[in-house]
Amino acid sequence: MKKILPVILLVTCIGTHAQSRRVQQTNGAKAPTSTVANEQTVKEMFDEANAYVKAKVAEFTEKKIPYTDALLTKTKLEQRQLAAKYATAAATRTNLAGEDFYYIGMLHWIADNLDGTVENLRKFVGDERAPTERAQTARSIMAVTLAKQSKLTDAEKVLADYLAKEPQKLTERARIEVELAKAYQAKKEFVKMAPHAEQGYVASKALLKDATSRARGLDEILDAGMLVYEAHRDLGEPNKAEAGLDDMRALAAEVGSTSFYYYAVDQKIKYLIETNRKSAALDFYQNALANSQKDFANKGQQNDINTRLKKREKHYKLLGDIAPELPLHDQWFPGDKRSLASLKGKVVLLDFWAMWCEPCLEAFPNLIEWHQDFSGDGLEILGITRYYGTVRGMPADRGAELVELKRFRERERLPYDFVVGDGQAMQIMYGATGLPTAVLIDRKGVVRFIETGTSPTRLEQIREMVVKLINEK
Q: pTM for the whole thing?
């Protein structure tokens, strides 16, 4: 399932020419230096591993070490390594009993060892003396783990066992149902997916009654609500699919979340266009602009929603229509200039980018991979940029900038053509004023996808759409 704003942070370059620098990726990390003391209980091992990231973040803050995604990734890897080390050490003990199996199972859970998680938590819940609340937590994690492993019959049995006992927590119920829905979705078993998505959505909405869970509750609702929508969409039930999005929009207004509200509106507009109801989609867009005034009393919230929607107006008008030809451009290299009409029969990805845009650069490994994987199946990627008057943060004329663009393409080993605009006409035509912006055009020359920003989830979303369009023969 695709997840985008508001829950996922999409990094976007807008209106800045500052020079970017790539974040160096961590290829590996040394295991944490913590050692297992003979007197340390299994619970103490778990507590240390569980608190590892929080403790390291506090240490970074105290030492004024700048936060980066690479640093967080490295820290989480160290946490998994520590948990795996402790789980292995604990398993060698001969006096294990009772809650020891719970904490070993939880160490395996942190370490992403799913088999070890289920094995040890099953031993724990099999003990009649196991504390009821902890046993329920163990069952919830077992059900989630089995769903992740696509062992759906076993996961359903554990869920039934969980529901037959008390106490039941909304957070645990929501997570089990959502993971089962995702697992059935991956298998394209949408009939089985739908009830789990709906139960997950109900449980997630109930979390809003707890003020301490409000932020997390919104995340849960978006995740589960989208699963409800996608299940009914893929079952060919448009009324139910739209009802799910409408319910999400109404709930967003109730809790005062503009980003959630915008997301539900945006999804419905795109769905109406996808199902050949573009006129209804554009009417709904106009109504949404007006309804935001009714749904939100705060002027700032109204403006926030309308600003977001108006930025998408150009995209909505393009979606479902034949892609307009690229306006006059200055350079097309290393291949020969072509028209979009001449590319009919291919799936075309227009990647609007700039050399100074760091999120644009972060997408390059994926673009290279897609070219390698799908060019033989008809994917054509075009890197669309323009002259910005700078090279590496310094003023430059067009000749120098063009030389740098050609060097840049070779240096980054980008295997597709670059199209360089003389002015902003190409970006304006496709509503690509924020970077990066990805536009996907199907084999018939119809615009099927336009999104701005990047994140791992966004990149996966683009890849899924590429595969879908390639399979549309």
A: 0.87
